[in-house]
């Protein structure tokens, strides 16, 4: 009701160790997006980092939110993510970040003991971030990782994760000139 009444919603929610986010994922299902059970694992070595197939380097698709980062060749890092699949029936969903065709969702979730595909795992590709346009001005930006803005992963992405989140926030509030790559400090930090 909030989004239908022109509300804006920014969500960063991925898989949880215990239980499910049924109510939160119910918002997605209302717009024709299904959340896969488990944790997304990449088989394509160009799409994960640090020899950990669950620390994903997704493809960044063109949008107002991502174009400044794409043009500067920045990459986002999405650790421990859920896979999102859209039925595209409403035409109101735009995928911002996507996995390769070789990704799959490990049904074992946090209990996984192998990165190999097993029976019960769901084939990708998946969206890892989406924009949902609910009508006149109501919008949702959804990142499928709760650890997306962790300082460590933001540092590994050279600040692209924070810039992506800030661009999403600027997009939601309608500040198109604020959608950019934020300046970085050139000061040296000395180790004592």
Q: What report would you give on this structure?
A:
- The protein is an alpha+beta fold.
- The chain is 18% helix and 25% strand.
- The chain has 4 helices and 13 strands.
Write the layout of secondary structure elements.
Elements: E1 8-12, H1 22-30, E2 33-35, E3 39-41, E4 48-49, E5 52-56, E6 59-60, H2 67-71, E7 78-79, E8 84-86, E9 93-98, E10 104-106, E11 122-123, E12 127-133, E13 139-143, H3 151-156, H4 160-173
Parallel strand pairs: 1-13
Antiparallel strand pairs: 2-8, 3-10, 4-5, 5-7, 6-9, 9-12, 10-11, 12-13
In order across it, which strands form the biggest sheet? 1-13-12-9-6
Count of helical stretches:
4
The count of β-strands is: 13
Largest sheet: 5 strands, mixed
Could you state the oligomeric state of the chains shown?
single chain
Strand content: 25-35%
Features:
single chain; alpha+beta; three-stranded antiparallel beta sheet; 13 strands; 18% helix; globular
């Amino acid at each position: 009701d909030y989004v239908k009444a022109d509300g804006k919603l920014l969500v960063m929610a991925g898989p949880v160790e215990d239980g499910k986010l049924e109510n939160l994922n119910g918002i997605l299902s209302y717009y024709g997006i299904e959340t896969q059970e488990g944790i997304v694992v990449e088989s394509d070595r160009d799409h994960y980092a640090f020899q950990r197939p669950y620390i994903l380097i997704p493809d960044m698709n063109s949008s107002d939110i991502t174009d400044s980062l794409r043009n500067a060749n920045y990459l986002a890092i999405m650790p421990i993510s859920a896979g999102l699949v859209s039925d595209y029936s409403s035409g109101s969903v735009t995928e911002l970040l996507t996995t390769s065709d070789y990704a799959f969702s490990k049904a074992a979730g946090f209990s996984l003991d192998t990165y190999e595909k097993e029976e019960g795992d769901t084939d990708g590709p998946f969206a890892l971030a989406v924009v949902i346009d609910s009508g006149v001005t109501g919008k949702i930006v959804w990142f499928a990782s709760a650890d997306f803005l962790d300082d460590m992963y933001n540092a590994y992405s050279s600040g692209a994760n924070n810039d992506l989140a800030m661009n999403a926030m600027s997009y939601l509030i309608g500040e198109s000139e604020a959608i950019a790559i934020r300046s970085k400090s050139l000061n040296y930090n000395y180790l004592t």
